[in-house]
Design a protein that fits this description.
Blueprint: H1 11-17, E1 25-26, H2 28-34, H3 41-46, E2 52-53, H4 67-76, H5 82-89, H6 91-96, E3 114-117, H7 125-128, E4 135-140, E5 143-144
Parallel strand pairs: 1-2
Antiparallel strand pairs: 3-4, 4-5
């Protein structure tokens, strides 16, 4: 028998996160896999909090490290806007890991970890096309991988 604790982020927790240096990091893959209540991301964003999305790539709680799926869960299940999901999985995620000075956005002097998509109608298409492989070229550490 599996016992799953369902945590709810309420007003007190949101208030405690305000004016702190903590990046609230949500794990929509774990919530999906374990059948947990989705985090109140809209309430958090409306309160002025930034959020990061992560995979929690873990065989017991979220056996997928597919960040495109995490982006899709962010838009489809959590009702985040595509812009919010892109920020949550890039610069905000880098900030949460303490590496936003070198990762998480495209800028001179930062590590070149980017992907180039196949032709798509708009960037907003990326998180909604949850089963489509949209990557044409993958660049990691400035080197073309695919």
């Amino acid at each position: 028998m599996v016992c799953v604790q369902k945590f709810i982020t309420g007003d007190d927790e949101i208030e405690a996160l305000k004016n702190s240096e903590t990046m609230p990091t949500l794990l929509p893959g774990a919530a999906f896999f374990l059948g947990m209540i989705d985090p109140p991301v809209r309430k958090m964003i409306n309160a002025g909090l930034p959020v990061a999305l992560a995979s929690d790539f873990n065989p017991g709680s979220s056996p997928s490290g597919n960040m495109k799926f995490i982006m899709s869960l962010g838009t489809i299940k959590l009702r985040m806007l595509p812009e919010e999901v892109i920020n949550a999985t890039t610069i905000n995620g880098a900030y949460a890991m303490g590496i936003s000075d070198t990762h998480g956005s495209i800028a001179i002097g930062k590590v070149a970890n980017v992907f180039i998509t196949k032709e798509i109608p708009t960037y907003e298409y990326i998180p909604y096309a949850y089963t489509s492989n949209l990557i044409d070229t993958l660049i990691l550490n400035g080197r073309i991988i695919k």
